[in-house]
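Homework help board

Subject: predicted structure for assignment chain

Our instructor gave us this sequence and asked us to write out the predicted structure in token form, then describe one feature. I got the tokens but I'm not sure how to describe them. Can anyone check?
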Amino acid sequence: MIIDNVLSTAKAMVADHKGILAIDESPISCNKRFAEVGIPQTECFRKDYRELIITTPHLSNYISSVILCDETTKEERQDGTSFIKYIIDSGIIPGVKVDRGERELAGYNGEKITEGIDGLRERLAIYAQKGIRFAKWRAEIIIGNSIPTSGCIDANAHLLARYAALCQEAGLVPIVEPEVTMNGHHTLERCKKVTAEVLHSVFNQLYRQKVVLEGIILKPNMVISGLECSVQASINEVADATINCLLQSVPAAVAGIAFLSGGQSCQLASANLNAMNKKYKSKLPWPLTFSYARAIQQPAIEIWQGKKLNIEEAQAELLHRAQCNYSARRGEYDKHSDKY
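My token output:
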């Protein structure tokens, strides 16, 4: 019965060409974004911003699910309605980020490991009681001189698998996020090689931990040139390399693939997703969707600036970006007519 609920939730999260909106930045990360545009870095302003997002009219037309941070799961609107209940009543599935960030991996210079597995079973049970239906855990894999090592990759893959098993035990869908980051001088080819190695390790561990693949959402990076690489791959090259890598690395049983934006601009994240769906959608065993944070939120936060009089305009821009990515899932996004 529990796994049946997990499977049905996973299907709903990737249905109807909708995507997943990530608003799970930690208070520290959210404050950094606020500082960039001059918004006071307080819990009150973070709460107002989250409320701006979840109350955006018609958001459920394009967004199936939202990922929250722990702080947001405890907050309420002025009328006493919890954010979680408002999200559910809006026809959107609520989820939560459960990892506790990355730390230096002992013995591995320049590499990181994600923390938060201790006590996770108990935390998941509490979230489930609140109405949360899925969770997210991110592992950060850095490309550099002589890294990533297999030791770092396997350690993070094991934690992702343990987290996923605990989620399904609690009746929650695990979003499995192994991110090969864009920072660096690496080429498209190097990114593809590392991404494939990471995915092979992740799915090996998921199998070993008896995770039901039909009940997970994979949230990978796109295969893309490093930000400092002198040769930046084209949109079509990114689409071809990414799909080729996924077909060789991801089992067909997976419920869906929801890409992270990973630092891409709003338009580029939409254009890359569009190219993949336009060229390959009919040939793929899983739906390709989006799970973007900054690539949807950034225009809205720049417009809002912490001012009530800007809320309506900010919400309109947030909805526009959600609609752009909804169109990209359909292979119908036109970057030339995108105003941002």
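Reply (TA_rk): Your tokens look well-formed. For the description, you could write something like this. The chain has one domain: 2-332. That's the kind of observation they're looking for.
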